[in-house]
Design goal:
alpha+beta; 4-stranded mixed beta sheet; 3-stranded antiparallel beta sheet
Length: 146
């Protein structure tokens, strides 16, 4: 009888270790690092077809230039949805002008392989009176942030 408990105990411990090892490697397979290179305020942005888009009355644009690097082993597809701006406890999502910005770093959908980086501009529209704001990451929980 004692031998049966020992065998079951060894199997349980082996299963727990296997799950722990798998979870650790799984978490490392999707891992990113991001840096905010700059945040620039303006009352308008220029689209890729040279059209000036003005911020709504009482608002201003903030363009965040972000560098994202894939530190994991699997490819990832960064998204503008990954970031928001917090202004005094109110969170703002990216502005539609993100997709048509006349910028070398205009947001486009890409796949990043291991160790690859992309620089992208994401536009937000926030109240013009805002002086204190910060970029907040909403990177999905299945992707580890370094």
């Amino acid at each position: 009888m004692k031998k049966g408990f020992v065998i079951i105990g060894v199997i349980v411990v082996a299963a727990i270790l296997a799950v722990g090892l798998f979870s650790g490697s799984e978490a490392e397979s999707k891992k990113v690092k991001y840096e905010v290179e700059s945040m620039t305020e303006s009352s308008y942005v220029i689209s890729s077809n040279n059209y000036a888009s003005h911020a709504d009355a009482g608002y201003k644009f903030v363009t965040a230039r972000i560098v994202i690097t894939n530190l994991g082993t699997e490819s990832i597809s960064p998204s503008a949805f990954w970031f928001k701006i917090d202004c005094n406890g109110v969170t703002y999502s990216y502005d539609i002008n993100t997709y048509s910005l006349a910028s070398e770093y205009r947001y486009v959908s890409v796949n990043l392989e291991k160790d690859a980086s992309v620089k992208m501009d994401i536009v937000f529209q926030i109240p013009a009176s805002s002086t204190g704001y910060s970029l907040v990451n909403y990177i999905p929980s299945y992707i580890k942030v370094a």
